[in-house]
Write a structure and sequence with these properties.
The chain has 380 residues and is of the alpha/beta class. It catalyses: 7-aminomethyl-7-carbaguanine + guanosine(34) in tRNA = 7-aminomethyl-7-carbaguanosine(34) in tRNA + guanine.
Length: 380
């Protein structure tokens, strides 16, 4: 059976099931970001199940520098370590090549870093990234790439993308080798390649065609939401996604707001991830169908309603805006935790609504209603 089953399409929007060794993923899906093997905000793996999380995402670079992938392998792999039996996607460390620009040097063989924790020298190339991800035993491993800045000049982006394409071939070869070893934790580990090219349509399209020939398990569009406008991002998706295989999952990395996700689904994206819901939650900013609320605002001091009427998340089932605001003001961790749980539930539940609307052939009207509602309600 094909790993990715395309169940339905509405325009370019796709509704699918992705079969993995750790269970089926219903797409479109939002992956909940747990950088070091936990979602920030005191969220447990039991919580994740309660708030409808299908896929947890962890960071290769961060787990490598602290606690160490070799130790995690000794302890049975990341699933066992964090007590999570559903799919995990690990990113490759490639984004840190972008975000730690002051701490690294890029060469053909890979990237030389200084650890952001203690300055220790680290080398990571395609093979090392695959080895770390194999040690973690994640369901889906991301290829090692460079994420060039969206404002980088054309020649730099061309050279970078060509190197990323060469690195991808090395990733594929190394993953095949690792999956064949007797002591590998997950011999069914999947590999997603990453499309790059900043905001140059032709470089993006050429790279998409080139990586599509490698017959990988899935394909990501990387290097967006790093400084370009939303319009530029949507334009790149319009131009690029049609050149990626429709019969494989497509992942838009690090994106985004609820509106970004709706626009991405319309353009054929299956997988999303973003730190927004957890990061905003930790700062008292919560998502609702009537826009985003800032619970620190004075007007919620005596507001005994839940964050959102009708929401079935652990926060809204029990607690009021007034109480959560009190917790936030008092710097009690529970306030942060409840806001994060609500936001992740909001995202995961929205993805369920998106899938239901695609099943019913009414995604276009759902998208219009959802966007309209989020811009009409109580803003703060």
């Amino acid at each position: 059976m094909a790993k990715y089953e395309l169940l339905k399409q509405e325009g370019r929007a796709k509704r699918g099931t992705f079969h993995t060794v750790h269970g089926d993923i219903q797409t479109p899906v939002f992956m909940n970001v747990g950088t070091v093997g936990a979602i920030k905000g005191a969220v447990s793996t039991d919580d994740l199940k309660e708030i409808k999380c299908q896929v947890e995402l962890s960071n290769t670079y961060h787990l490598h520098v602290r606690t160490g992938d070799k130790i995690i392998k000794e302890l049975g792999g990341l699933h066992k370590f964090m007590v999570w039996d559903r799919p995990i996607l690990t990113d490759s460390g490639g984004f840190q090549v972008f975000s730690l620009a002051g701490l690294r040097k890029i060469k053909e063989e890979g990237v030389y870093f200084n650890s952001h924790i203690d300055g220790a020298k680290i080398f990571m190339g395609p093979e090392e990234s695959m080895q770390i991800q194999s040690n973690l035993g994640s369901t889906i491993a991301m290829a090692f790439d460079e994420c060039p800045s969206s404002v980088a000049d054309r020649q730099y982006v061309t050279n970078s993308v060509n190197r990323t394409a060469r690195w991808l071939e090395r990733c594929k070869k190394e993953m095949a080798r690792l999956n064949s070893l007797p002591d590998t934790i997950n011999k069914e580990q999947l590999l997603f390649g990453i499309n790059q090219g900043a905001i140059y349509d032709d470089i993006r399209i050429d790279h998409a065609k080139r990586i599509s020939e490698l017959e990988l398990d899935g394909y990501a569009v990387g290097g967006l939401a790093v400084g370009e406008s939303h319009e530029e991002m949507y334009h790149i998706l319009d131009e690029t996604v049609p050149h990626l295989p429709v019969n494989k999952p497509t992942y838009l990395m690090g994106v985004g707001t609820p509106a970004n996700i709706l626009e991405g689904v319309e353009r054929g994206i299956d997988f999303f991830d973003c730190v927004y819901p957890s990061r905003n939650g930790r700062h008292g900013h919560v998502y609702t169908n009537h826009g985003k609320l800032n619970l620190f605002n004075q007007k919620y001091q005596k507001d005994m309603r839940p964050i959102e009427e009708g929401c079935n998340c652990p926060a809204c089932r029990t607690y009021s805006r007034a109480y959560i605001r009190h917790l936030l003001k008092a710097k009690e961790m529970l306030g942060m935790r409840l806001c994060v749980l609500h936001n992740l539930y909001f995202y995961n539940n929205m993805m369920e609504e998106i899938r239901d609307s695609l099943d019913a052939g009414r995604f276009a009207s759902y998208k219009a209603e959802k966007l309209y509602g989020m811009t009409q309600g109580e803003q703060s």
